[in-house]
Amino acid sequence: MELLERVQRRATEMIRGMEYLSCEDRLRDLGLFSLEKRRLQGHLIAAYQYLKGVYKKAGEGLFTKACSDRTRGSGFKLINGSFKLDTRKEFFTMRVVRHWNRLPREAVDVPSLAVFKARLNGL
User: Fold this and answer.
1) Distance of CA 123 to the CA centre of its chain
2) Which residue of 39, 49, 82, 109 has the smallest Cβ count within 10 Å?
3) For residue 12, how far is the Cα from the chain centroid?
4) Are residues 39 and 7 part of one domain?
5) What is the pLDDT of residues 22-33, one digit of tens each?
6) CA 74, CA 48: separation in Å to the nearest integer?
7) Residue 16, domain extent
């Protein structure tokens, strides 16, 4: 558990009447997301921006798109590369691909970032 997650857990424990609830229940009652989920949402938003061409120079070759019409779900499937070293599995592209490919077509095939964020929050 990272430092910020410990701080979030400790801060929610300080709220009177919620001391005995689990961390997930406290966050749900307060209408908050865990920091892990917020971090994943930030990564997916960045991936959307790369794929839509917002970062043209920096985003070239960052992701590899699947070239098949037979992809299930969205038409923007990404290919997960294979690496021999475990440390490469922690790179941004490797963390995002699995979650990106699970998104439904309605979330991925949107015209703007604002709509993508709204659909992502609705999942």
Assistant:
1) 11
2) 82
3) 23
4) no
5) 888 888 888 887
6) 13
7) 1-32
